[in-house]
């Protein structure tokens, strides 16, 4: 069988700097990012409410994740002067558009992750004697 890649590759044709997949993974690969985005899926949410919704996230990680998402243009932050200040977050239009592929990936996970776990178990069983 002759693969189109069987010939000698002179220069890389897959690159971290130009690959669209790697660029989006840079945004969503943090373990908290997807959870934070999902916490805002239904609209405006206050910081404390978001922290209570996301199991295991620290104040520091939530703050860092929100700041990065705001920097990336995915999240809007609104501060209402009060004592203490009221800080609300919501997805921007760009952030809402990211929900579409994230939901598709979530659906793939629901349908297929058990097969991944089974493959891992089989691999570990076969390769445990190495």
Automatic annotation (TrEMBL):
HTH hxlR-type domain boundaries: 19-117
Alphabetized SUPFAM superfamilies for the sequence: Winged helix' DNA-binding domain (SSF46785)
Keyword line: DNA-binding, Transcription, Transcription regulation
Any one GO molecular function term: DNA binding
Highest rank taxon of the organism: Bacteria
Record carries keyword Transcription: yes
Protein name in UniProt: HTH hxlR-type domain-containing protein
Provenance organism: Paenibacillus sabinae T27
């Amino acid at each position: 069988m002759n693969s189109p890649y069987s010939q000698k590759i002179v220069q890389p044709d897959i690159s971290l700097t130009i690959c669209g997949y790697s660029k989006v993974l840079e945004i969503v690969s943090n373990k908290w990012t997807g959870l934070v985005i999902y916490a805002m899926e239904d609209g405006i949410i206050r910081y404390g409410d978001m922290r209570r919704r996301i199991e295991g996230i620290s104040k520091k990680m939530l703050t860092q994740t929100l700041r990065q998402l705001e920097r990336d243009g995915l999240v809007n932050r609104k501060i209402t002067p009060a004592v203490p200040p009221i800080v609300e977050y919501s997805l921007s239009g760009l952030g809402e558009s990211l929900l579409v592929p994230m939901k598709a990936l979530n659906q793939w996970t629901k349908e297929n992750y058990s097969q991944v776990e089974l493959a891992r178990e089989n691999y570990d069983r076969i390769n445990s004697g190495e």
